[in-house]
Write a structure and sequence with these properties.
By secondary structure, the protein is of the alpha/beta class. The protein is 52% helix and 12% strand.
């Protein structure tokens, strides 16, 4: 298939590479030329303007995968809707608020095209391990982009169409809220080991033992173990932990639905407190985990 990948950041680059290497024709577009040049050097088709992207599709159906931050998606959609012909498929692969996705899908539909939401997980390891993708939107349009998802799911990933517009982003939002709770629990547990009555417990070794078919065996624990093996005292990590929006939206939704979410709520509050200076070994470990799976910046001290 021919597809334009817009937004060549940490995830966008991997998506473009994986599609290109599986034989799809990838048009690479980004605000900065350096990222476009990098993809061009790998054999992809380069485009240095939105107009050029559209022109490169010729008479073929325009399919654009947007991998941009949630606060940029409205402007991105606005610009593309000025240019694309009817019956185009626009894909929002970022972490967008499902409530806004539903409204955006209606706007795109009125223009004669379709918006598909694809919540995408896999972090900076998705290129190697395959991505996990949660889709929502028009089922016929989903079927048309399915070959793309099959490529991105290789070799160990998965994808599924969960329903109408916003459903994919809703499932991804919930996934990320769960992630907050799991990360917080691991971070607190390792802090309990470090600061408990038994001094000098080898945290990396504890994590290694747990990673061998214990109940807490997981990718998050693997990343935590690796971080502790590399930097046992987490020296140089400030402990500031960012929140990217998904847990906040999940808590807002849970409150509206009167669903209790104590674990997610506490995990969210810990991140907010860390941003105000309340840091400890656990918040440092949270920052290290985020860097491990997503390449997120670590604040140094």
């Amino acid at each position: 298939m021919k597809i334009a990948v817009v937004g060549l950041g940490r995830m966008g680059k991997q998506i473009a590479r994986k599609l290109h290497e599986d034989g799809h024709i990838v048009i690479a577009y980004n605000r900065s030329r350096d990222s476009i040049d990098e993809m061009k050097s790998l054999g992809m088709t380069s485009a240095y303007s939105r107009e050029e992207v559209v022109a490169l599709f010729g008479k073929e159906r325009i399919i654009i995968w947007m991998m941009v931050p949630a606060d940029a998606i409205d402007q991105e959609l606005k610009e593309w809707l000025k240019l694309v012909k009817k019956d185009s498929i626009l894909i929002d692969g970022g972490n967008s608020d499902f409530r806004l996705t539903k409204k955006r899908a209606l706007k795109v539909l009125k223009s004669g095209s379709t918006l598909i939401d694809v919540g995408t997980s896999g972090g900076i390891w998705g290129y190697k391990n395959g991505f996990s993708m949660m889709a929502g939107g028009d089922k016929k349009s989903f079927a048309k982009i399915e070959p793309i998802l099959k490529t991105l799911a290789k070799p160990e990933g998965a994808y599924f169409h969960f329903g109408e517009s916003g459903a994919g982003h809703y499932v991804k939002m919930t996934h990320n809220a769960i992630e907050y709770g799991m990360m917080e629990s691991l971070a607190e547990g390792y802090r309990l080991l470090k600061e408990g009555p038994y001094k000098n417990i080898n945290l990396g070794k504890a994590g290694d033992v747990w990673q061998h078919h214990s109940v807490v065996t997981s990718w998050l624990n693997e990343l935590t173990r690796d971080a502790l093996v590399e930097n046992p005292t987490l020296k140089g990590i400030e402990g500031f932990v960012a929140e990217s929006g998904e847990a906040r939206w999940a808590l807002e939704t849970a409150k509206k639905l009167k669903i209790e979410t104590p674990a997610i709520s506490v995990a969210f509050d810990v991140r907010l407190a860390s941003q105000k200076g309340k840091v400890n070994f656990a918040t440092k470990l949270l920052a290290a985990m985020r860097n491990g799976f997503g390449g997120h910046k670590i604040n140094k001290n």
